[in-house]
Amino acid sequence: MTVLVCTRDRPVELDRCLASVRCQDFDDFEVLVVDSASLGAEARDIAQRWGARYIREPLPGVSRARNRGVGASQAPLIAMIDDEAVADPSWLTQLLREFADPQVMAVAGRIKAFEPSTDEERICAVLGGADGGLERQVLDRSCPQWFERACFGGVGCGANLAFRREAFAVWPGFCESLGAGARIVGGEEHYAFFGVVERGYSVVYSPTAVVSHPVPTSMQALQQRHLRYLSASVGYIALLFAQQPLYRRKVATYLVEALRGTPRTWRSGGAAPRVRLAPRWKSALAVLSGLRSFLLDRLDRSAPPLKPGGARPAVSPAASSNADPHEPVDRRRSDVATIKGA
Predict the structure, then answer these.
(1) What is the pLDDT of residue 305?
(2) pLDDT attached to residue 230
(3) Which of 143, 227, 150, 214 shows the shortest CA–CA distance to 188?
(4) What is the pLDDT, as a whole number, of residue 338?
(5) Which of 176, 221, 242, 264 has the highest local Cβ count within 10 Å?
(6) Strands 53-57, 30-36: pairing kind
């Protein structure tokens, strides 16, 4: 097994994360740190101190970094943890148990908030946490509302994940338009779950594979994160609508229900308390920001790369029409061949 940690300029958090990974009760694994366009060398030094393999990815984006890490790993199972998170000692053991079923291609574990120390932090943990609860779930195409649950938060979040390496032979990997460091700063794990389930496999939520993760410690910080997530959600929904034409009716229905305030009882951890975290005008600006991010991403993906000197190379209509703008841009044919031959 490989434990993949993607990081960028968080030395204290990375050190704490790697310390928890090295305390696992499971010992047959390597640790791989992918440094996503950090400004200094601290991540490399910390990785070396904890005996982790270090790779520098010069371009930002957590999805790009994860795809890079998968391409560099030879392990049949790849666990992914947020560099801000702290893993319980049995984290890897509990993730591994879920892969006894060969249909399971991905597992999402439980994400607990760090123990709050003030009343304000307790409120933030309730309103801004990502705890999926104590009920184990298996999601596949036979489940009611599988599309909504996969795409919109019904089966865990990105700070605590594991995938079979085989998945990357039948699925193109994390969409590099999504996630921290990309134009649209979220939704990458949900789009990944959709890709796995849509291809006929299962995703499991395991409440016993636990990591702890910080949450905002003030209402101001919670509001800022809420607006950032709202913007990302709008960009993600726009991308999903554009990229998945077979499911546009479901996306539109979900969006209408969201505008009506329909409770999402299927959401991992249950429906969140309905509290207005920001003024309407700020929320409206976040929505516009999300649409802008989507449009800018489409322009980025449709434009051919710049030649040295600033001129763009000509692109034939055939090459342009056959390209998938959301195929991970740094994946190589050799990477895919290696995975298929593993």
Answers:
(1) 58
(2) 93
(3) 150
(4) 30
(5) 176
(6) parallel
Pull the structure tokens for residue 240: 């999903």
Give the whole-angstrom CA distance, residue 263 versus residue 273. 10
Amino acid type, 27: D
Query: Nearest CA to 183 among 61, 12, 98?
Result: 61
**pLDDT tens track for 110-122:** 999 998 888 888 8
Residue with tokens 């499911």: 247
Q: Could you tell me if 213 and 114 are in contact, meaning their C-beta atoms sit under 8 angstroms apart?
A: yes
Length of the chain: 342
Count CA atoms closer than 13 A to 169's CA, side-chain side.
11
Q: pTM, whole model, 2 decimals?
A: 0.86
Residue 112 β-bridge partners? 212
Q: How far apart are CA 68 and CA 174, in angstroms?
A: 10
Element at 68 (helix H, strand E): helix 62-72
Helix (H, G, I), strand (E, B) or coil at 312: coil
> In this structure, what is the dihedral angle of CA atoms 217, 291, 285, 159, given to the nearest 10 degrees?
0
Neighbours of 36 (CB within 10 A): 28
What pLDDT is stored for residue 341 in this prediction? 34
**What does the pLDDT read at residue 70?**
96
CA 168 to the chain's CA centroid: 15
Mean pLDDT of the chain: 87
Which residue's structure tokens are 């959301």?
Answer: 326
Phi–psi pair at 43, nearest 5 degrees: -60, -40
Sequence letter at residue 270 = G
Cα–Cα distance between 65 and 110 in angstroms, integer?
22
Alpha-helical (H) ranges within 167-279 are 167-170, 188-198, 219-243, 248-260
Residues of the chain falling short of pLDDT 50:
308-342
Q: Between the CA of residue 205 and those of 39, 96, 131, 210, what are the distances in Å?
A: 35, 12, 11, 11
Question: 37's torsion region: left (phi>0), alpha (psi -120 to 50) or beta?
Answer: left
